[in-house]
Amino acid sequence: MAILAANLKFYQSTVWSDAAGNGTTISATEITSAVSENIFPNITDAERITGVTKYKKIFLKNENADSYNNVKAWIQANTPDAQTAVTIVAGGSVSTQGTDTAVPTTTFTFAATDQVIASADCSKQLRPGEMIWNSTDDTNAAKRAILSISANGLTITLASAYGGTTGAAKAATVQKISDSTFVAAVNEAAGVVLGSLANNQSAAVWIKLVVDPASDGYTDDTFTIRVSNS
Fold first, then answer.
1. How many domains does the chain divide into?
2. Residues 207 and 160 in one domain
């Protein structure tokens, strides 16, 4: 069976606000493309004058019967207003905007290398670009960015060797997404990796909107996020 674009849908996260807890899991609220304010509300005069940074977590859900494999997301068109810009990073089902969050149900083996081994598939809970640490023994000072996750979700490769406490059966915590490095992802080659999605599986993209201080007003400031697979 073919993958139909109509069955690739975007949904809001469960917490859809500007609060620290913004994010977490997928909700049942579908996002309709090409509709005003479908991601971010209009910028107020106060926000325009002082400048503001906002975050939203959107989920791509594959509602096709077949798997949608090796998925990437990128910014097909950034904002036309030179005083605003969006960047993105992949997101798992755990991360929130401004709060460190424990990874549920799964335990991890941390070693003094760049490899962390999960006790179960964690590829939907965590994604490259997020940061984790051994929260059984360490503080978030030990955090490391996730560089990649194996296809079976059992091996996490960190951007650098873990320097905190090592050992098996450890809990892990995800750093608040506002501390992650967002990227411009201007084309498919530079896109963020969402992984493969079986029927009714989903993966998230965090979107960061920055409005410069003392910005002029702008009508119909838009951007376009696109996904593809290979």
1. 2
2. no
Domain identity same for 114 and 207:
no
Stated length of the chain: 230
The answer to whether residues 63 and 89 belong to one domain is yes
CB 11 within 8 A of CB 67: no
Tell me what percent of the chain is helix, strand and coil, each rounded to the nearest 5: 10, 45, 50
3-state secondary structure 123-148: CCCCCECEEEEECCCCCHHHCEEEEE
Residue 219 tokens read as 């009508």
- CATH assignment of the domain containing 87: 2.60.40
Per the structure, the complete domain to which residue 76 belongs is given by 8-20+50-96+179-213+222-229
Closest CA relative to residue 14, chosen from 99, 90, 94: 94
pLDDT bucket at 1, cuts 50 / 70 / 90: low
The CA distance from 114 to 160, in Å, is 5
Look up the pTM and report it.
0.94
The total of other beta-carbon atoms located within 10 Å of residue 104's CB is 9
At 62 the pLDDT is 98
Of the candidates 148, 208, 201, 137, the one whose C-alpha atom is nearest the C-alpha of residue 176 is 208
pLDDT digits (tens, 9 = 90+) for 182-228: 999 999 999 999 999 999 999 999 999 999 999 998 999 999 999 99
Average pLDDT (37-53) is: 96
